Amino acid sequence: xxxxxxxxxxxxxxxxxxxxxxxxxxxxxxxxxxxxxxxxxxxxxxxxxxxxxxxxxxxxxxxxxxxxxxxxxxxxxxxxxxxxxxxxxxxxxxxxxxxxxxxxxxxxxxxxxxxxxxxxxxxxxxxxxxxxxxxxxxxxxxxxxxxxxxxxxxxxxxxxxxxxxxxxxxxxxxxxxxxxxxxxxxxxxxxxxxxxxxxxxxxxxxxxxxxxxxxxxxxxxxxxxxxxxxxxxxxxxxxxxxxxxxxxxxxxxxxxxxxxxxxxxxxxxxxxxxxxxxxxxxxxxxxxxxxxxxxxxxxxxxxxxxxxxxxxxxxxxxxxxxxxxxxxxxxxxxxxxxxxxxxxxxxxxxxxxxxxxxxxxxxxxxxxxxxxxxxxxxxxxxxxxxxxxxxxxxxxxxxxxxxxxxxxxxxxxxxxxxxxxxxxxxxxxxxxxxxxxxxxxxxxxxxxxxxxxxxxxxxxxxxxxxxxxxxxxxxxxxxxxxxxxxxxxxxxxxxx
Length: 496
What we know:
The chain contains 20 helices and two strands. The protein is mainly alpha-helical. It has a two-stranded antiparallel sheet with strand order 1-2. Helix 15 crosses helix 16. It is elongated, with a radius of gyration of 33 Å. About 5% of the residues have low confidence.
């Protein structure tokens, strides 16, 4: 599609609007809130807030949405507006820029393209279209709308009405009418292929192809980089605001002993805490998948940059939601189990649990960013976590693993989380109560009497660097997964 004989400028999507077949609107927001979101991102910043609100109210009245203006659009879990009202809301999201011409549409056409069954039957100047059809036997009656006339011809209604007129006193066979329409389609295609219009069109297309690189370079030089009607911070503010409202209104949003048995009790608790933090992030797979169509439509329509959308999801899902859940989880679980009774150990425990949740969530985002089916994404994520659990340090003694497999532990998120929790908990603990035995000497062969001995048996360094290297590894993995997720969103196929 050319604009004034040249390829589309970089900011064309900020100047045009289209309504997709699927109604891509945020179901947890009201009709008015969806239109406000579109107005905030698609109208220039120079437009005052009062004028934006007036345009939103005007659209609500024009589209007949006044009665449901403050009702939620609705999701699978939330009862919302009707299908027709939902479609009109989607139309309003595009009409907020007022992209439609104010005068008769057909009179403004420079060229006209007509298709039948996906095959071209006319392409050329709109002023010559009536003469072309008249020359092949289809004359437009006086005072008839040319657009309606063309629709009648390509749909076969023109010949059907003529056939019905000829046999007005007889019953017309339905099969004859169907055959008439098919013959009309074939004739229109054949007439166009044999016409001079087709030759002119082919010559024009060949010229465009030859000059494509020339014209593209000229357009880039003149038009410059892609521009938006709003700044990055403004886009981030509105997308983040909508994301938080979606999280709030979405109903889908989830004692140790100091003896030998205490080692097993602690290990079991720490292992399941780490595993819970990993599998608890599987719900994040729906983050991009459920909004895939909405994101593609709004990005292609120039609502916001990919970076603004992605950062809003990271801030809401990763930084805020996971932080709050991890802190609340740690506050309850830590003292309920009866782990180390020091504030420093509790803070390190909370930090480790939060970093583990961050990294697992980032991996979930990276896997699901380019997926379109939630069940398939969940399958991939679950397989990865189960594989990581094997090399976490509980199910298999890592020092005993063969060298050609030992490197796999460095790819395990639970491995780093569990190792940090073990160092934080076991360093300084005693599991052999020798003082209660008085002056009797007791052989502790085969017993693990200190937390450091247990960590050494597990192949874990118990020093300060041994603790913080796990946190560093989790942070690096989280950063890498987030970069992968962003690149997938940035270069995902956005046209189908």
